[in-house]
């Protein structure tokens, strides 16, 4: 606590009334108004006791005092005369930090009321300091956890790219090939191939939030175990996403889409909300349409992360042209070229996102009901 003394000698007056400041605060500083106004401007959870005569005697210090007072919890004003009290009331109308005005006739009862006020602020100040200490300790623990998580993530990404640079899977006459590349920014890129009856669903997820990715991957795993249905999964996923977005200053970036193929009729449809690009017959197609597939048909899906990286290039390249230049290559080689083109073509303005390129190829020997 800080006492700003004037001619009133309020510390001695309070002692005469049996009010010791040390009963309420563990430290006490007695300053002149000039010394107080020279303190560095920083937030302090302290109460100021002001002998109002200090302002009356130093009118040039009033504006600086108002500025410095804004960094404190509040001020209790002690007046020596009725004239000072009137001026203090006018001052309080301009300064919301005034907690109370006492005097000029400060007796034992008023001193007891002031003691109650100081006791309250002392308890509040202690709680505030304790909270700050806990928050500081908590922030250190969070930093350690985040650092450990980042190190684990980098190791996992390196292992993923080293051991699983390509992925091949066959589902009832449709061959899937993929190429994954880890990025340098935060976030997660993920895809999974799920068969349920005569439906094959390829789920694509891209987000800048590890919390969102964990929730959605857990949700996906549950739906896979229960018998995956695209509409049911997306409905629950968007509800979870809406809950995660509540109360956040900066919205979470989430891109979630499902490409579904009817394995009997060879019809392909898109569901969800995603910026991913799809190439068929060497051309980008509108994913909002349903497409009829045929034997030997090849469909290439470039994930949301791929599209983000493409848009961040100083000079984005023509995806169709690049694809057609390498269309004679094997699926793995073609996907590799599509990834390399993004990684090496230009310098990025921002961190590179994780990305994946997936090719679906209808097997000429596969058995389908048309």
Please tell me about this protein's structure:
This protein is of the alpha+beta class. It has two domains: 2-133, Rossmann fold (3-Layer(aba) Sandwich), CATH 3.40.50; 164-362, Phosphatase 2c, domain 1, CATH 3.60.40. It has eleven helices and 16 strands. The protein has helices at 10-16, 33-36, 53-57, 62-69, 82-94, 108-163, 210-226, 230-245, 304-312, 319-325, 331-345, and strands at residues 2-4, 29-31, 47-51, 74-78, 98-102, 166-171, 174-181, 188-196, 199-207, 254-262, 267-273, 277-280, 283-284, 291-292, 298-302, 355-362. The strands form three sheets. A six-stranded antiparallel sheet has the order 6-7-16-15-12-13. The chain has a five-stranded parallel sheet with strand order 2-1-3-4-5, with helices on both faces. Mean pLDDT is 82; it is low at 162-166.
Shape type: elongated
Q: In percent, how much strand structure appears in the residues?
A: 15-25%
Please tell me the total number of domains: 2
Helix percent band: 40-55%
What's the count of strands? 16
CATH T-level topology of the largest domain: Phosphatase 2c, domain 1
The major pleated sheet works out as: 6 strands, antiparallel
Overall pLDDT confidence: 82
Rg, alpha carbons? 35 Å
Kindly name the structural category: alpha+beta
Distance between the termini: 85 Å
The CATH architecture designation of the largest domain is 4-Layer Sandwich
Q: State the order of secondary-structure elements, H for helix, E for strand.
A: EHEHEHHEHEHEEEEHHEEEEEEHHHE
CATH class of the largest domain: Alpha Beta
């Amino acid at each position: 606590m800080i006492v700003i003394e004037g001619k009133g000698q309020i510390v001695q007056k309070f002692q005469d009334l049996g009010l010791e400041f040390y009963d309420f605060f563990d430290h006490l500083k007695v300053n002149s108004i000039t010394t107080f106004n020279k303190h560095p401007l920083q937030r302090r959870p302290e109460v100021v006791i002001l002998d109002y005569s200090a302002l009356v005697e130093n009118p040039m210090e009033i504006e600086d005092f108002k500025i410095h007072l804004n960094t404190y919890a509040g001020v209790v004003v002690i007046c020596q005369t009725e004239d000072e009290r009137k001026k203090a009331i006018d001052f309080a109308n301009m300064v919301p930090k005034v907690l109370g005005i006492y005097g000029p006739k400060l007796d034992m009862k008023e001193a007891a009321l002031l003691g109650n006020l100081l006791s309250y602020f002392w308890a509040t100040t202690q709680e505030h300091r304790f909270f700050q200490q806990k928050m500081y300790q908590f922030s250190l623990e969070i930093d350690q956890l985040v650092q450990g998580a980042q190190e684990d993530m980098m190791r996992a990404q390196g292992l993923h790219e080293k051991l699983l640079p390509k992925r091949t899977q066959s589902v009832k006459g449709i061959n899937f090939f993929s190429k994954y590349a880890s990025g340098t920014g935060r976030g997660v890129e993920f895809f999974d191939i799920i068969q349920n009856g005569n439906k094959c669903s390829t789920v694509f997820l891209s987000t800048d939030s590890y919390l969102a990715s964990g929730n959605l991957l857990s949700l996906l795993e549950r739906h896979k175990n229960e018998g995956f249905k695209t509409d049911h999964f997306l409905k629950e996923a968007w509800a979870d996403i809406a809950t995660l977005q509540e109360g956040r200053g900066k919205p979470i970036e989430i891109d979630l889409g499902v490409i579904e193929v009817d394995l009997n009729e060879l019809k392909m449809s898109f569901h969800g909300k995603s910026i991913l690009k799809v190439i068929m017959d060497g051309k980008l197609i509108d994913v909002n349409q349903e497409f009829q597939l045929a034997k030997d048909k090849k469909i290439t899906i470039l994930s949301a992360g791929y599209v983000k990286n493409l848009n961040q290039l100083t000079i984005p390249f023509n995806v169709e042209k690049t694809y057609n230049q390498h269309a004679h290559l094997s699926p793995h080689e073609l996907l590799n070229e599509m990834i390399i083109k993004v990684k090496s073509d230009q310098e990025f303005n921002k961190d590179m996102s994780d990305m994946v390129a997936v090719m679906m190829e209808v097997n000429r020997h596969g058995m389908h009901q048309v």
